[in-house]
Amino acid sequence: MGATRDTVPGVGTVHHCLTHAGQRFGVLRHNDGRRELFFSASGESDKPSHTLVLDHNEAEQLADLLHSDPATRRRPLCGPP
Fold it and tell me: What b/e string do you get for 3-30 counting C-beta neighbours within 10 Å, with b at 16 or more?
């Protein structure tokens, strides 16, 4: 999967992703902790076809569902191994 990252001044950070199958989606990480997932139809403009807004806890729960190991078994991304 390819991904790019850009700063949205005053809002947060946006990650644009493209899967190997050509599906496009993005994650907007708002400065206040919200996460916004947006999905675009393949080959379409940058205008999202669907948007899903998650609060911090919902984003954590979704990340845990998508991850291959439970959160209790994962190493932190930062700090000592």
Answer: eeeeeeeeebebebebeeeeebbbbbbe
The pTM score is 0.69
Q: How many CB atoms lie within 10 A of CB 41?
A: 12
Q: Residues 28, 21: contact at Cβ < 8 Å?
A: no
Per-residue pLDDT tens digits for 5-37: 999 999 999 999 888 888 889 999 999 988 999
Are 27 and 15 a contacting pair, CB within 8 Å?
yes
Please give the structure tokens belonging to residue 76.
């932190």
49 phi/psi in degrees, rounded to 5: -90, -25
Contact status, residue 51 vs residue 38, Cβ threshold 8 Å: yes
